[in-house]
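### Sample
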Amino acid sequence: MGLVMGTFSLQSKQVSYHKDKADDDLEMTIVCHRPEGLDQLQAQTNFSKRELQVLYRGFKNECPSGVVNEETFKQIYSQFFPHGDASTYAHYLFNAFDTGNTGSIKFEDFVTALSILLRGSVTEKLQWTFNLYDINRDGYINKEEMTDIVRAIYDMMGKYTYPVLKTDAPKQHVDAFFQKMDKNRDGVVTLDEFILSCQEDENIMRSLQLFENVI
């Protein structure tokens, strides 16, 4: 789950709370895209109004226009993986955040996804992760899609990973996943199969809890 976080939440932790509501309202009017009101976002997410204010300032620091395109998203995300190539994984991650297929991520898109990843139920987190792997959004994960994601993760971690990864490591990883997840052996993993398999895996379940108190 840590690979999904990106830099915005980290930026937000460095912002102080000293500004009042009038300042927040003013800030929201000077960017190109005005996000939905804090009350509405509070109702739609698991964040308090104060947390949303901090997240918004962090988002605006990185994206003064109020939206972020894919190229900017890749540049921001790649800063966290200097020894690897994060561009492909960032592409898939961007598409998962851009649920409306608009080619850009608004603050509402960002904070909605972050709410699920940090404060959502286990099922909500797994549904979001499933959608990340379901590249063509047909409701199934096939081996090609999972291989593309896993290879992108290996590329992102870079050549300095330890132990040194073998060339066929992504394929072995995917084969092991499918052996576990494809319950009916039909060559694809459904959402139900994905959720069930993840819930049976103690390591995955622990990873879902790592960032619950990030902000």
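The first strand starts at residue 67 and ends at 69. This sample (Potassium voltage-gated channel interacting protein 1) is used throughout the tutorial notebook.
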